[in-house]
Amino acid sequence: MSTLQAEHVYKVFGRRADEGVRALRDGADREELRADGTTAAVIDASFSVEPGQIFVVMGLSGSGKSTLLRMLNGLLEPTAGRVLFDGQDLTALGAGEMRRVRSTKISMVFQHFALFPHRDVLENAAYGLEVQGVSRAERERRAGEALELCGLGGWERSWPDELSGGMQQRVGLARALATDADLLLMDESFSALDPLIRRDMQDQLLELQRRLKKTIVFITHDLNEAMRLGDRIAVMRDGRIVQQGTAEDILTRPADDYVASFIQDVDRSRVLTADAVMDEPTADADACACPTVPADTPLADLCAVSARVPHPVAVTGADGAVIGSVPQGRLIAFIGDEPRPPMACVEVAA
């Protein structure tokens, strides 16, 4: 069973929201509704997130991605459609039941940290547990463990204004992790950070995910961030999801011209891997003692190997057997690099 499912979800703002949904289902577009004083923020959104996945929703400002996120935890009620969490229809819950779900099963990390300036780091990290009614000793223990996981051990009694932006965001992440919620929602959580700190936080999230295997929905307008973090990605435009898939799917098979233009500046060499571009194995690649590469090798690293051998680079599977090969011309076609003359085959140590 999927951890999270959205089924034909709409969010329309205005006095005649239900009429707006009917019009959209009949083929009307956003501009037609806007002329009548109705705003369609999310239109017919459907997707599923499997346990342990990072599902990234990506789009420009106004695409509807943050509105969609707020319907996943009941902060906004869908105009139509359903949101199911572990089989439970969240859209059918009363306000009190929804608050209990939010306090125990769904945590959220905001863009602007949302820390309490009058509480120290430990108290901020423990706030969600305090709302749950957990005893002080227990919540401080669990909050301390979450801070340690986020690299903030030793900062428990510091104040938020004593921390850098990246450290403050780590406190927000620790607060979400301390509740041990099944689902983590992250709304542009790293976009307010400087580029180097932002990448460090991405590294931190990926490392935490390797250890904790949380189910995460991550909102971003940054395509490179989406490609780096997402197990699966949904691209939104004008309230609609226009494509879903892996980073490889979106880079190699864009659904339309909009997605193609959106991805044109992505550093493909850091996103695509050898198994995404390989052809069938060749006799030359399999027979000599030239270097081979594992299937998950980024194209940036594959380039260095391709420049040193006179034939397609052999790609190996988990058992070490050759499963494919990457000709230099195919590699160049995917990343737009210039070819370099290969060296002759050389014997390499095992």
UniProtKB/TrEMBL annotation:
<dbReference type="Pfam" id="PF00005">
    <property type="entry name" value="ABC_tran"/>
</dbReference>
<dbReference type="GO" id="GO:0006970">
    <property type="term" value="P:response to osmotic stress"/>
</dbReference>
<dbReference type="GO" id="GO:0016887">
    <property type="term" value="F:ATP hydrolysis activity"/>
</dbReference>
<dbReference type="InterPro" id="IPR005892">
    <property type="entry name" value="Gly-betaine_transp_ATP-bd"/>
</dbReference>
<dbReference type="GO" id="GO:0005524">
    <property type="term" value="F:ATP binding"/>
</dbReference>
<dbReference type="GO" id="GO:0031460">
    <property type="term" value="P:glycine betaine transport"/>
</dbReference>
<keyword id="KW-0129">CBS domain</keyword>
<dbReference type="InterPro" id="IPR027417">
    <property type="entry name" value="P-loop_NTPase"/>
</dbReference>
<keyword id="KW-0067">ATP-binding</keyword>
<protein>
    <submittedName>
        <fullName>Glycine/betaine ABC transporter ATP-binding protein</fullName>
    </submittedName>
</protein>
<dbReference type="InterPro" id="IPR003593">
    <property type="entry name" value="AAA+_ATPase"/>
</dbReference>
<dbReference type="InterPro" id="IPR017871">
    <property type="entry name" value="ABC_transporter-like_CS"/>
</dbReference>
<feature type="domain" description="ABC transporter">
    <location>
        <begin position="4"/>
        <end position="263"/>
    </location>
</feature>
<keyword id="KW-0813">Transport</keyword>
<dbReference type="GO" id="GO:0016020">
    <property type="term" value="C:membrane"/>
</dbReference>
<dbReference type="InterPro" id="IPR051921">
    <property type="entry name" value="ABC_osmolyte_uptake_ATP-bind"/>
</dbReference>
<keyword id="KW-0547">Nucleotide-binding</keyword>
<dbReference type="InterPro" id="IPR003439">
    <property type="entry name" value="ABC_transporter-like_ATP-bd"/>
</dbReference>
<comment type="similarity">
    <text>Belongs to the ABC transporter superfamily.</text>
</comment>
